[in-house]
Amino acid sequence: xxxxxxxxxxxxxxxxxxxxxxxxxxxxxxxxxxxxxxxxxxxxxxxxxxxxxxxxxxxxxxxxxxxxxxxxxxxxxxxxxxxxxxxxxxxxxxxxxxxxxxxxxxxxxxxxxxxxxxxxxxxxxxxxxxxxxxxxxxxxxxxxxxxxxxxxxxxxxxxxxxxxxxxxxxxxxxxxxxxxxxxxxxxxxxxxxxxxxxxxxxxxxxxxxxxxxxxxxxxxxxxxxxxxxxxxxxxxxxxxxxxxxxxxxxxxxxxxxxxxxxxxxxxxxxxxxxxxxxxxxxxxxxxxxxxxxxxxxxxxxxxxxxxxxxxxxxxxxxxxxxxxxxxxxxxxxxxxxxxxxxxxxxxxxxxxxxxxxxxxxxxxxxxxxxxxxxxxxxxxxxxxxxxxxxxxxxxxxxxxxxxxxxxxxxxxxxxxxxxxxxxxxxxxxxxxxxxxxxxxxxxxxx
Length: 446
Ligand code: PNW
Hints:
Blueprint: E1 13-17, H1 20-23, H2 36-41, H3 59-72, E2 77-81, H4 84-87, H5 97-112, E3 116-122, H6 128-131, H7 140-156, E4 162-167, H8 169-178, H9 189-212, E5 218-224, E6 228-230, H10 235-258, H11 263-266, H12 280-284, E7 290-294, E8 299-301, H13 326-338, E9 344-348, E10 356-358, E11 361-363, H14 365-383, E12 388-394, E13 413-416, E14 421-424, H15 426-445
Parallel strand pairs: 1-2, 1-12, 2-3, 3-4, 4-5, 5-7, 6-8, 7-9, 9-12
Antiparallel strand pairs: 10-11, 13-14
Helix pairs in contact: 3-5, 7-9, 8-9, 13-14, 14-15
């Protein structure tokens, strides 16, 4: 990888990302319904530090301050999610105007600062009322999701640049239903398959419903992806890497872009474990205006027992995720060869690392290094012809990291949860200055 400062195109969009349950708090205010994450966090033994998102970063009340802070980072755009039960408490039927008002005020504030909005419809907080009827295992949930999507598009479509249906359906299916680490806490591999199919189906239905509103917002989906690297060049390791890639990346990409599940993945599973109607693929395979890619690390595939672990030459984060920037290049170039892709946004990329507060400065050098290396890797992919339009750092601020609670910090802004004080970490200052320098260089070229 070159150490040269990359030069991103003039129109490249710089951003930061968050999600509703992780930052908003105000979990029981202004008519918000309960979500499966409220239920999950209030169940003993599910979250490492026994914390909840009841208050989180109190963003619901501090959104104006937060928008001012993110605008101060000089970013072009902000990716956030709408809490479905905040705007439709039961996931069907009545809308909650107070919930819509909150997002409307947030959008006003972003517009006032000239920051573009990128909205995600589903970042894991399903209304508990729908879970009580089977949640994503119930095919009816897909129709409810499409109605919710259309309502959001009607109300906000003119005020946002993009709307993504789902964030990381792989996580909802596998971590939420396959191994039970995430809400709703089910541990059943067959359920994970059925849920992944219903998530894809709901994505297709939602795109159709949103398009029917005539919205100008660009529509897409956000997938978490990682290339799978074989631990050695043994045939067994190479086969294992291909299988892992089929089960994670291609499992979601193939239905959307090719209209079927990958054969290599189907061979590994019990097909009778889930119901797929033939016409579903016609629904799922809607043209996308953009694809969001979340990248954190690679999968390291070893067929040995015990499996070899990745060399992690650049270290690991507090999540124990290997820092592997070249995986971003490998992933994007691979996708570009395999699929006819729409424009891509890197909708998440970031590192959990404990910071040190020294003389009022929040030092987090590993995070700055992580971002710098991944931007170089992104630049390398773009030089290979991959059409990437923007990059969102995950996350704007430290927040509720799901089953890891508040122990893992991904933010550019440090959050002192006792006082809710936000402060800029060194990485935030670096990111701000990097964006400024990129803009200046682009102006000079023009
Ligand atoms: C993503 N995995 O989650 C989510 O979109 C964010 O809400 C989250 O805070 C961020 O990444 C950091 O974790 C993931 O186990 C969770 O592979 C788990 C995995 C991947 C992504």
